[in-house]
Amino acid sequence: xxxxxxxxxxxxxxxxxxxxxxxxxxxxxxxxxxxxxxxxxxxxxxxxxxxxxxxxxxxxxxxxxxxxxxxxxxxxxxxxxxxxxxxxxxxxxxxxxxxxxxxxxxxxxxxxxxxxxxxxxxxxxxxxxxxxxxxxxxxxxxxxxxxxxxxxxxxxxxxxxxxxxxxxxxxxxxxxxxxxxxxxxxxxxxxxxxxxxxxxxxxxxxxxxxxxxxxxxxxxxxxxxxxxxxxxxxxxxxxxxxxxxxxxxxxxxxxxxxxxxxxxxxxxxxxxxxxxxxxxxxxxxxxxxxxxxxxxxxxxxxxxxxxxxxxxxxxxxxxxxxxxxxxxxxxxxxxxxxxxxxxxxxxxxxxxxx
Amino acid sequence: xxxxxxxxxxxxxxxxxxxxxxxxxxxxxxxxxxxxxxxxxxxxxxxxxxxxxxxxxxxxxxxxxxxxxxxxxxxxxxxxxxxxxxxxxxxxxxxxxxxxxxxxxxxxxxxxxxxxxxxxxxxxxxxxxxxxxxxxxxxxxxxxxxxxxxxxxxxxxxxxxxxxxxxxxxxxxxxxxxxxxxxxxxxxxxxxxxxxxxxxxxxxxxxxxxxxxxxxxxxxxxxxxxxxxxxxxxxxxxxxxxxxxxxxxxxxxxxxxxxxxxxxxxxxxxxxxxxxxxxxxxxxxxxx
Amino acid sequence: xxxxxxxxxxxxxxxxxxxxxxxxxxxxxxxxxxxxxxxxxxxxxxxxxxxxxxxxxxxxxxxxxxxxxxxxxxxxxxxxxxxxxxxxxxxxxxxxxxxxxxxxxxxxxxxxxxxxxxxxxxxxxxxxxxxxxxxxxxxxxxxxxxxxxxxxxxxxxxxxxxxxxxxxxxxxxxxxxxxxxxxxxxxxxxxxxxxxxxxxxxxxxxxxxxxxxxxxxxxxxxxxxxxxxxxxxxxxxxxxxxxxxxxxxxxxxxxxxxxxxxxxxxxxxxxxxxxxxxxxxxxxxxxxxxxx
Lengths: 354, 288, 292
Description:
The complex is a heterotrimer.
Chain A: E1 4-13, E2 16-26, E3 31-35, H1 42-50, E4 57-62, E5 65-66, E6 77-80, H2 92-102, H3 107-121, H4 136-149, E7 154-158, H5 166-183, E8 186-191, H6 194-200, E9 203-208, E10 211-216, H7 218-223, H8 228-233, E11 240-247, E12 252-255, E13 260-262, E14 273-278, E15 284-299, E16 303-310, E17 315-321, E18 328-333, E19 340-343
Parallel strand pairs in A: 3-8, 3-9, 6-7, 7-8
Antiparallel strand pairs in A: 1-2, 1-4, 4-5, 9-10, 11-12, 11-14, 12-13, 14-19, 15-16, 15-18, 16-17
Chain B: H1 4-39, H2 44-49, H3 60-69, H4 80-111, H5 117-126, H6 136-145, H7 152-156, H8 163-174, H9 178-187, H10 191-202, H11 204-219, H12 223-228, H13 237-245, H14 254-274, H15 276-286
Helix pairs in contact in B: 1-14, 3-14, 4-8, 4-11, 11-15, 13-14
Chain C: H1 10-37, E1 40-42, E2 49-51, H2 55-62, H3 64-96, H4 102-110, H5 117-128, H6 134-141, H7 152-180, H8 184-192, H9 197-227, H10 229-235, H11 247-257, H12 261-291
Antiparallel strand pairs in C: 1-2
Helix pairs in contact in C: 1-12, 2-12, 3-7, 3-9, 5-7, 5-10, 7-9, 8-9, 9-12, 11-12
């Protein structure tokens, strides 16, 4: 168990800049999920922490010790790989024991640790098997076990659930979270799946084009996304964005269709372009708001997702309770307390300046 | 008009033809061996008279005893026992030596980045184009200057370099997922440890396949031992056998020659038949 | 290409060292020597030598007996390749059919791979020796004067047969593997399209097999050029006369028997160029196959 600190990590492959200075402080026992679309640099960041990749600049500090430049073996970290990377010619026991054997632990100690981890993961009966003879979920457990027996300062997870089918993924997700809480090991978990991120992390790092777009708790990210990218990335269906212009001393935003929305305070200067964000589940049917034409209804049981278009042709998604929705014209109101206001130019979230 | 009955009958006939052709093929390969095997059980005069025996005769034991312990032919005989041992040692050393140095060089080329890596690879690769037959004399001269004529080292060491085996292992090592290397790094395993604990065990089937091919390659060497060895105590069985035949005189001790031929044939054929699955895999994969 | 590597510089060199030392000592040094000697005239005792440029090459290439040997080698190699490939393809097609006992036939057809070329020659000698060979005697009894030790054409025929016989199983293994890798669905589609078995073979199977066939052609030519040395040496020793003397056998006689080092070296260099040419053709072809 240890803290982890990343200090302004950058990484370039030749002329390609993959990370543009990422800093992060992780408390003891905390589970941090790094989430983002593919190519955002999240895996590179994890591999830099592991020591598998060398940063171009910056520092990695684990448990107060600067480990920048150290070999992975000297960092006391354990990793669960996307494809598990189980050695096919070793038994489950052999796979889990390998790292301990290299570190020269006495045999009884190795057996004790492997046995304990196997019990914890419910794979005691599989110890003599080869990885080939295991199901996907079982392999996943062995990969976890290999990390657990090491009793490392840090767990690193590189999209470990992406090779599992949907049902197993949900089950293993909960299991990983339970285990991590129980063992209390500081963890970094990389995923591209926002649901996984929201449910697993104490805090999330939303990565976008080599930057940490936002670092916060899942609820905070959902309630107060730092920019339009984060706002669009987290939440399903994705948030609606409607362009608008500020007026009345920055206190009112006027949509293209003419609808004027009072702002909670002064958001900026008159004439400044802003983007109004509203989550589909926050739209309510009613008059005096937006006029939309519903083109497609996706019933989800107790609620339905409506794909609609505004008068100017831009798309709008709404998630409404109930089942009786038809295609055709529909009025939707925007609850003011659920609006997110972003600067149109920078995409950054705007807060009322009073 | 085709009838179903007619088609069925034709298919039956076709199946018989298939069996017939295959049986003929098998026969064409087996017959020379059968003839030799039978010849090795008769005495020299029966064969010399030209009464070609197609059935076993009564002299098997003495022919094989003579071939094994004394040798034959009209020149100074070398016992087949000695020659077989020489061939066995040569074939084993060549096969194991080739595998060993090819494994390590392929490992170096695949798992490391170092200056001159591609150069080393090409230097090894280009030897494919230099079979011993095209550089007989200069290679012989090198052997003389290294004082390796008439030695087992001389027989074996120059044949140990192997572009084919290196290419095969390189190909195989490239299929080992990067994640194994990373997992090993996190587990704290260095390059030698990874070689011993992961790369080598994973290569076992490739090694077995290659062993069959290289063993036969070594056993069947002809020109090289002919050049390098004239000390008859180092004679290998294939070269020794043709020396026994000499000009092919009718007065040769053909019974002993045939017994020696059978003995020379047996080890490599056994290896191929017993390790058929690996052998076929190895052959079709090395040549890719 | 592998993205993850181990650190270290000394270790990889150490691992490469044995292979590189052997390659350097026994491949590059002699190959360089061959090239160097091909430009020298040396007396038989190696006491003196002088640089004569391309004279050795000119001598070799204008020597009618060398040109004859080259022509002979061409006929010999083409015959061996054609026979060995044809027989192997035919047998492989039969063995690929879904018949009972296919595996047994397979085993019984691949073992001759283990027979050394020289030993194959000995087995054929046992059959075709004019006095002790069963077929040799039959031919003579039938009124055909058969003695490969006297008749050059008969000698050539015998080394062709013995060399091809040994190579069939190798080709068979590759053809069978090639046949088995052709997806059954393609052949079934052709059958539905109305192609009967023979037509299916020539319009679908054979074109799909052509990369294998081309690869084998090169391998068989190289085999016929070089590996058949053992066949010739143990069966005819190049004779009678020079009627079975191929290029490689001539390098041997000129170098080892006649100690004509310059000429032998020049011949070696010519052969090296030939092998390099063949190898390049082969790799060109393989590369193209990979890309499409």
